[in-house]
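Support case: zinc ion complex. Customer-provided input:
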Amino acid sequence: MAPEHSEQPEQPEHNLFHHHLLAVGKFNYAKGERPNVDCIFCGVRDNNPDITSLKVYEDERVFICLNLYPYNPGHLMVIPNRHLERFEDLSGEDRNYMFQVVMDCQKMLQDLFSPTGFNVGYNQGQYAGASIRHIHVHIVPRYREELGFIDIIGATKIIVENADSVFNKVKARIGEYVGSKRSERL
Ligand SMILES: [Zn+2]
Ligand SMILES: [Zn+2]
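Agent response - structure generated as follows:
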């Protein structure tokens, strides 16, 4: 990741699933210039040309993006298509489906990158550090070689893995894990 892309956002948040996930135009988002859309995830879902995203999968219920500024190679987000701001507002079917997709993603990441563990979870509400209200689940692969948990809390981690190669690998393979069993579940 080039140095100019590693700036802190305008309101640094010290939480586990910190956002640096999307670039707008020439990375203005990283400089604190929010895109002119009501919801950045709805924009990603709708392929808004003003939003650069790393969407790797979409279907009738969810879409999946790589985090543009990941804590670790393979940091994914699973996002429901419906704009909801509380997990309890998901239908039972959507909730089950999302959780299945999360596990499918973990299986894929395990096969592709051999992490030694995962942090999976979400921030709900701005005081809990949710900088984007549209609910989503973060999947952060963890690796034995990491310096430690404090790097994630402090959002200071430097990613050495080539982001393009991670994107290409995930994009090429994710359909085998998430898409293949989709018809049985809908
Ligand atoms: Zn988040
Ligand atoms: Zn939304």
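Strands lie at 23-24, 51-52, 55-58, 62-66, 76-80, 117-121, 137-142.

Case will auto-close in a few days if no follow-up is received.
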